[in-house]
Design a protein that fits this description.
The structure holds 2 protein chains of 2 kinds. By secondary structure, chain A is of the alpha/beta class. In chain A, 33% of the residues lie in helices and 26% in strands. In chain A, strands 5-6-7-3-8 form a 5-stranded parallel β-sheet, sandwiched between helices. In chain A, strand 6 (150-154), helix 6 (162-177) and strand 7 (181-185) form a beta-alpha-beta unit. Chain B starts with a helix and ends with a helix. Classes of the chains: A alpha/beta, B mainly alpha.
Chain lengths: 201, 221
C-alpha cells in the first residue's frame, strides 16, 4: 500500500527552537532507516510529524503509493513510542485485542502476535503489573496483530533483554521481507541492516 | 463500523472503571440534594416549589465532575496518539468518547434526577419530564463539556479551567430545561422547553466534536 516514504525539505519547530531544517530522505519498501542524534535533536518529533500528530514548520511528507497522506496515516502507519497508550487497569489481553481491533487487525492476528512474542503468561495480568520490558513486548504485539506497512518506532529496543531484542530483529526482518518500511529512532545500532540518518548534526 | 464499536466498547469499559465510574458524580449529586434541606430547613412547602429546579441544576454541576478526565488519561499515556492513527476521523473518536461518557455517567445521573426531585417534594407526576430533561440535557452537557475538557488538556488544575470554560455554555440548556420543568409544574405542558433543549442538544452533538478534535490536535503538538 505504501511503496515509499519521501520526506522533502522538512523543518520542525518546537516553541522558539528549530529542531532541524530542510531534512530530506527517502525510504522505500523493504528498507529500514535508523534515526540517530543527540537527546532533544528531534527524532521523536520527526516520527510524530510523519504520523501526522505534529505540524511541521515547512516541507513535505509523501506516502508514495497511498491515495493521500490522510488515508495512509489512518490505515498504514504504526507509531510506537514510550507513551504506548496501554491502560494500567485493564488486562494485557483486553488491551491487545483493543489495539488490534482498532488498528485493523483480527483475532487471527492477535493469536499470531501472542505466539510470536510469547505473551501467553502475561495475558491475564493487569498492564500496571507488567515490567517495562513486558509492557514493551505487549505494545510491540500490535505491529504483528494489525499488519500495517510503515512502522515508526521510537527506541523500540530500550527496555528489552537480549533474547527479546533478537526476537524484535527477526520481526523486523520478516516485515521488511514482506515489503514493509521501518523508521526507528535509536541510540544503539539497529540489529538489522539499515541506513543511518543522523539528524540535528 | 467495526472500529467504532471496538472503541465504544473500550470507552464504556474504561468509563465504568475510571475512578469509580459514575459513583463520584452520583455521590456528589446525592450530597447536594441531601444538603439542601439541611441548609434551607425541612419545611416541604418551601422545598417543593424549587425541588425540580434544584434537581436539574445539581445535575448540571454533577455532570461537570467527571468531565475533566474525559481526554486527560489518553493525553498523558499516549492513548490519544493511538486513537489519532486509527481508522476513524478524530471528530468521530471524540463523539464516541462523549457518547460513552453519557452512557456511563450521565445515564445513571439521569435516573437519579427524578428520585432526587421527588425526595425534595416535587410531585410524582413531574418525574417523566425530569427524566426526559436529564437524558437530553445530559447529552448536551457531555458534548459541550467535552470542549472544555479538550481545551484544558495539558493545563495544571485543568478541572477549574474546565468549569470556567464550560459553565457559561451550560446556561442555555439549563434555561431551556428549567423552562420545561416550570411549565410542567404550572400544568401548561413541558413541550416547548423540551423542544428547545433537544434542539440545543442536537446542535451540541453535531458541532462540538469539531471543536474537541481541533483542541486535541492542538494539545498533542
Amino acid at each position: 500500500m505504501i511503496s515509499a516514504l519521501a520526506v522533502k525539505g522538512l523543518s520542525v519547530r518546537r516553541g522558539e527552537r528549530i529542531l532541524f531544517r530542510d531534512l530530506a530522505f527517502r525510504l522505500a519498501a523493504g528498507e529500514a532507516v535508523a534515526l540517530t542524534g543527540a537527546n532533544g535533536s528531534g527524532k521523536t518529533s520527526l516520527l510524530r510529524a510523519i504520523a501526522g500528530l505534529l505540524r511541521p514548520e515547512s516541507g513535505e511528507i509523501v506516502f508514495e503509493g497511498a491515495a493521500d497522506a490522510d488515508v495512509a496515516r489512518h490505515e498504514a502507519v504504526h507509531l510506537l513510542g514510550h507513551a504506548d497508550g496501554l491502560k494500567g487497569g485493564r488486562t494485557a489481553l483486553e488491551e491487545l485485542s483493543f489495539q488490534a481491533g482498532w488498528l485493523g487487525g483480527d483475532d487471527e492476528g492477535v493469536a499470531r502476535a501472542i505466539e510470536q512474542l510469547a505473551l501467553t503468561p502475561l495475558l491475564d495480568l493487569e498492564v500496571r503489573r507488567l515490567s517495562a520490558g513486558q509492557r514493551r513486548r505487549l505494545a510491540l504485539a500490535r505491529l504483528i496483530a494489525a499488519p500495517r506497512p510503515l512502522w515508526l518506532l521510537d527506541e523500540p529496543m530500550a527496555p528489552l533483554d537480549a533474547t527479546r531484542r533478537a526476537l524484535l530483529a527477526r520481526m523486523m526482518e520478516t516485515h521488511l521481507a514482506g515489503g514493509g518500511l521501518i523508521l526507528a529512532a535509536v541510540h544503539d545500532p539497529l540489529p538489522i541492516p539499515a541506513t543511518v540518518l543522523e539528524i540535528g548534526a | 463500523m467495526r472500529p467504532l464499536f471496538t472503541l465504544l466498547g473500550r470507552e464504556l469499559a474504561l468509563g465504568w472503571g475510571r475512578g469509580g465510574g459514575p459513583l463520584p458524580a452520583l455521590a456528589f449529586y446525592a450530597a447536594i440534594t441531601v444538603l439542601l434541606p439541611l441548609a434551607a430547613g425541612p419545611d416541604t412547602s418551601r422545598l417543593a416549589p424549587v425541588a425540580t429546579g434544584v434537581a436539574w441544576m445539581a445535575l448540571a454541576l454533577a455532570s461537570l465532575l467527571s468531565l475533566e478526565r474525559l481526554f486527560e488519561r489518553d493525553f498523558e499515556d499516549g492513548g490519544l496518539d493511538l486513537l489519532m492513527t486509527g481508522p476513524m476521523a478524530l471528530e468521530l473518536v471524540c463523539a464516541v468518547k462523549c457518547l460513552a461518557q453519557w452512557i456511563t455517567t450521565a445515564g445513571p445521573l439521569a435516573l437519579a434526577a427524578p428520585v432526587a426531585a421527588v425526595m425534595l417534594g416535587a410531585p410524582l407526576g413531574s418525574a417523566p419530564t425530569i427524566l426526559a430533561c436529564a437524558l437530553a440535557g445530559g447529552l448536551a452537557f457531555v458534548f459541550v463539556g467535552g470542549i472544555g475538557a479538550a481545551l484544558a488538556l495539558g493545563a495544571r488544575r485543568g478541572g477549574l479551567l474546565v468549569a470556567a470554560i464550560v459553565l457559561p455554555l451550560f446556561s442555555p440548556p439549563v434555561i431551556f430545561g428549567g423552562a420545561a420543568l416550570y411549565a410542567d409544574q404550572l400544568g401548561s405542558g413541558a413541550g416547548g422547553g423540551l423542544l428547545l433543549l433537544l434542539g440545543w442538544t442536537a446542535g451540541a452533538v453535531a458541532l462540538s466534536p469539531l471543536a474537541m478534535a481541533a483542541a486535541c490536535r492542538n494539545a498533542v503538538q
